[in-house]
Write a structure and sequence with these properties.
The protein is mainly alpha-helical. It contains 2 helices and no strands. The longest helix is centred in the middle third of the chain and has 26 residues.
Amino acid sequence: MAHIQPVVKVELDPLNPVPEICAVIMAVTPYHHGQEEAILLGVKEAIEQRLAQLKKGDEVHGESVREPSGKQENK
């Protein structure tokens, strides 16, 4: 018997992250009818945890701006 599985493949522009991430969320939620609120709350929780980590890191290091991981500053 055929195994059919819906797949969402994503290519996004990392230079335009907010609308790209929002588009991914909007593309995924239709596959989870009735669970959109739970998905959005999970994303919200993940965002809040990451913001807390960033804030804690900034307090420890006295930094206000962080470079994305993997990006090296030219010196």
